[in-house]
Amino acid sequence: MTRLERLWAGWRSDYVSAATSDDERGDGCVVCRVLGADSYVVRRGARCAAVLNAYPYATGHLLVVPERHVGELEEMDADEGAELWAMVGAAVRALKVAYGPHGINLGANLGRAAGAGVPGHLHLHALPRWAGDTNFMTAVAEARVLPESLPTTYEKLRSAWPA
User: Cβ atoms within 10 A of the Cβ of 61, count?
Assistant: First the structure.
């Protein structure tokens, strides 16, 4: 039997607890708090914003979110939906300019059963990908190695964002 090693990250406890709360009003929502604090908000539109994922799967991992606390895709109005998809397109362009990836993953986990860590606030993921960008750390140690700090990523993406 193989023994699974543990990499302890106790500092994530508060984030995980807040991110997985079922607060329907939005005042306990981690996404709403990030938007309110303007923390790592790469671009803000009239109805949507692009923010860095504080715990990225890959360097450059962005979340595109409606400003309004809305959990379901079908609850967005037409203007929110249009701006959300326009911002996703701009995020892809910025990722390509900043990082020159071989591909981009786009995804949405709608509902806790689908894997949403914050099911009460809709968000789309945009991640740059490179051929061979997975390594043994994810498979063996269940950890990710990121070659760049969040402040550096933030500056790169702000500079690369289309006008």
Answer: 21
pTM across the whole model: 0.79
Inform me whether the pLDDT recorded for 116 exceeds 90: no
Other Cβ atoms within 10 Å of 98 Cβ, number: 19
Average pLDDT of the segment spanning 24-48: 85
Q: Is the pLDDT of residue 43 over 50?
A: yes
For each of the domains in the chain, give its residue range(s) and CATH number, in order of start: 11-160 (3.30.428.10)
Q: How far apart are CA 138 and CA 88, in angstroms?
A: 27
Asked if residue 153 has pLDDT above 80, the reply is yes
DSSP tag of 21: -
Radius of gyration of the chain (CA): 16
Catalytic residues: 123
Rounded Cα distance between 84 and 49, Å, is 8
Residues near 142 by beta carbon (within 8 Å), at least 6 away in sequence: 4, 7
